[in-house]
Structures are given as structure tokens and as C-alpha cells.
Amino acid sequence: MTDVLSYDxxxxxxxxxxxxxxxxxxxxxxxxxxxxxxxxxGIGHIALTGIGLGLLTGTxxxxxxxVVTVLGALAIELLRARSRSGGDVALALLFYxxxxxxxxxxxxQSGGSSLQSYLFGSISSVTADDLYVxxxxxxxxxxxxxxxxxxxxxxxxxxxxxRAAGLRVRFLSVLIAVTAAVTVVIAMRAVGLLLVGxxxxxxxxxxxxxxxxxxxxxxGAMVIGVLSAVSGLLGSFQYDLxxxxxxxxxxxAVFLVAVVAGAALRRRRAVATRPVPGGTxxxxxxxxxxxxxxxxxxxxxxxxxxxxAHVEPEAEVLxx
Amino acid sequence: xxxxPFAMTxxxxxLDGREVLxxxxxxxxxxxxxxxxxPNGSGKSTLVRALLxxxxxxxxxxxxxxxxxxxxxDWGRIGYVPQRLPMGGGVPATVREVVASGRTAxxxxxxxxxxxxxxxxxxxxxxxxxxxxxxxxxxxxxGGQQQRVLIARAxxxxxxxxxxDEPNAGVDADNQxxxxxxxxxxxxxxxxxxxxxxxxxxxxxxxxxxxxxxxGRIAAETRLRAATTALATGGARASEQLAEGSAx
Lengths: 320, 248
Prior knowledge:
The structure holds two protein chains of two kinds. Chain A is built from 14 helices and no strands. Chain A is mostly helical. Chain B is of the alpha/beta class. Chain B has a single domain (6-244), classed as 3-Layer(aba) Sandwich (Rossmann fold). In chain B, strand 1 (6-15) and strand 2 form a beta hairpin. In chain B, helix 3 packs antiparallel against helix 4 (143-156) and helix 5 packs across helix 6 (235-244). Chain B is globular. Chain B starts with 5 loop residues before the first strand and ends with a helix. The chains are: A mainly alpha, B alpha/beta. Chains A and B meet through helix 2, helix 7, helix 8, helix 11 and helix 13 of A and helix 2 and helix 4 of B.
């Protein structure tokens, strides 16, 4: 561990991994709830054109990516709001255009050698200046989540409820898309553009297996995000692997553990709250929780409890 | 004379090229408990959404407290209860989180929830009898309980007007009675209520006026009793008084 920290580039990379692990799942929780899970992926494709433009014009690839992804996010939101089918095909055109444009532009500049590093992440090339930019962007993303969190929660629950609460729905939708774009730029150096969306989605998918609430899901996802980013990075250093795929595979492993643990947890809760004829609630390991929530169950009609038992397996299928 | 909660004149709404509302004139006075009835597809839910400004009018005009919806700002006065708890992408939310989101229109973005906010959420949870489920996932509750979560969500905003879209659809008899009790309490406090209903059921004693829609027009209006403006009489008593005072 200490010899890992003796490398300058690893200290920078680890700081970056923590920032990525915090920001990507924070905005990702809203994106998953909004059913836009592939948004990060699409923005990642578009960002490649920005990098190509940055390289070609001799300016910073990060700034190039930032400008192009924010414009791309605005275009995506516009297409999504305009067309009823979600602008499905138009979005696909935008994504493929971004990827193809970026591939050509980077090839024109560097003969294609740097393309791989942007697609799958490359930690050793990250500089301290990159870290400062990323830290600034990360603070901005977390501030947006903190200040607009309540509004975004309502928007992602239901757009109509948000409108009936007087929220500016269009502004907030753009805010989510732009924040996602900024997050893509934050994460692209370490995770790579093709896998950047994974860190927005997988930690959230893992946390929602275990949590009962939105805030708990978001905080859990941020813990899993930091854990995955740091562990994946250390693993890639140890075994000389690419950081992006290592981070994503680690996150997927956490997800699988969470699925198994979540299923066990739900079964326990179901046993604990199911009213048993004769007045003894629960059995086995669920007994303690069972007697605590037996009162709750007694307040309900049998019909209500039966309906809940019906809902539970359905929720498992949905991954909730 | 303060303007009424809702006033629509010659309201028309087109959806997919079909005229769903074909010229509606409707004024909802303060303290009114209006039931919108009619067959499926008669435009009840569309009317409710048009009154709230959630659907644009293709003709006519509608106002919320004297302002067109796009210029109305005081959304904290309106509590909207949709038919179903939205599921979204499956990120869980606790009952308390959903109910607390009803305060959004009354909260400053720059401050954390105040003790007044928390107290309002507590009262709303108690009013629908879900205090002991506050920390559970809302989407794992039964349909009737989810309906109560949504009503508590609207109550948490302490609105003057409550708009409910089919609150009794798919809800068992016990939960319908519970809804009637909650509504009795609200109308006892003099709040205005607009409901989309298939049948009046246990809510009948509370309703002051029914408006029957057919093919996007108002087919019949019945005044059952006078709108209450009495404040702070106990819920059950208020509804009893209403029931007694209804000669119509």
C-alpha cells in the first residue's frame, strides 16, 4: 500500500477515484429513477468527439469534452422532451455520430494510439492539473445534488406531480442531463468513455437491492462507488490491468453480492410481517423482528397483507 | 371578493386530434366538495389535469385563484393526488420520503427541512394512519395503502385545495372508509376538494356538488348541500352536520 502511494501518479489517481466514486452514483440515482440508465453511456460516446476536437485544436481534451458533452446533453434533453417515443432513433444517431466523429478526429491527430486510452481509461497519463479540474467539477456536481435534491427527487418520481408543485420541469430536466455530462467528463480519464455510464448505474442498482429509501440508496451507492473505484484502481495497479474494466468488474461483483443479500433480507422482512394464525408471528431467525412488527401487521386487514405479499416477488423481478 | 380556486370558461382540450373536453364551464367555490362523475372516457381525468394546468387548453380559459396556470405561483395551496404511486426506475423511496416531497412547493431550496416541515409530515402520516409504516418502502405497500401515502403527500403541503383522481379505484372497502374519514376531517376544516369518482360510495355524505360529464361536456350538475366554510369543527361532527343539513 505504501509503495503504491510513493508514485505521484497513483496519489493523483486515487484522489480522482474517490471523486468519481462519490459523484457518479450521486447523479446516477436520479438517472436510474428517471429511467435514463443509458444516458451516461450515450454522453460518453458524444464526449469522444469533444476529445478529438480538443486534441485537434491543441486545447485541453478535458475542456473540449466538457463543452461538447454539455451541448450533447442539451440536445438529448431537447429530443427527449420533443418526441413522445423519447426520440429513440434520434438519440441513437447522436451517439453513433459522436463515437464515429471522435474516432476519426483522434486518429487524424495521433494515429489512433490515444483512442484506446480514452475508451477504457488510462491513469498514468493523468496530471495534477487534470485533478484540479476534476475536483472543481466534482464539487459543482455534489452542490447541485445538495441544493436541488428535493426538486430532482420529485421530478424523477413523477413529472406531473413536479409540475403540480410549481417546479420548473424543463429547467430541472436540463439540469440533470448537464450534470450527468459533467460527471462523464469527471470519470472519463480513469474509467474510460465506454464504461463511464457503468459507475453511474451499477452502484445504484446494487444499493437499491438493500435500501428501503431514496436517500439511503444514494448514500449506499456513493459508498459502493468509492469502494469500487479505489479497489479497482489498486487491483489494476497490482496486476498491470486497465483501470476502467477493473473498476467496473469490481462494481459488478458488489452488485451480485447485493442481489443475494437483498433477496435474503426481503425474505426475512416478509416472514417478519406476515401474520400467522394463532398469534405467533415469524419463526427461526425472523422471530425478534417478527414480534416487533406483529403489531403493525395486526393493524392491517388480512387483505392488505396479502396484497403486500403479492407485490414483493414482483419487486424482486423489477430489481427493486 | 377573492377569486375562486378553479374557474374554467369554455375549456377545450384536444389529445391526439380528438376533442376530449368540448367546452366546459366550471367554477369551484371555496369550501366546495365537487365530485366529477361520468362513464369511462368522458373526460373526468382530463378535466382535472386541465384545471391544474397539466394539460394545455386548445380553447377557452382556466384560472387557479384568478391566474392562468402558467402565471400561478402559489402552488403550496394546491394538493394533487394522482391515481397511482409512480414506480419510475425502481429506486425505492420510504413512505416518509414520498410524503415529505409534498412540502417541496413550500420549502426553500437553500435550507434543510425545518421543524415545521417535519411536524407537517408527521401530522399528514398520522391523518392517514401510516405513522408506523413511515420507514418502509412505499412501493411495497398494498394499493390502498399507497393511495393513503399519496393523500398524506398532498396533506403534508397543507393545501387549501385538494384534487384527487379516482381515489377509490382498486381500493378495498376498509381503505375507502378510511379515505372518507380523512376527507371528512379536511372538509370539516373548510378545505376545497375536487374528486374524480366512479361512484360516490362512502364519500356521499361529504360531497356538496356532483358534476356529471359525458363526451367531454357537462351533462348534469347536482347541488347536494351547501358548501361548508366552517373552520375547525371536528371531522366526524362536521360531516354529520352536513349530512343532517342536506335537504336536497
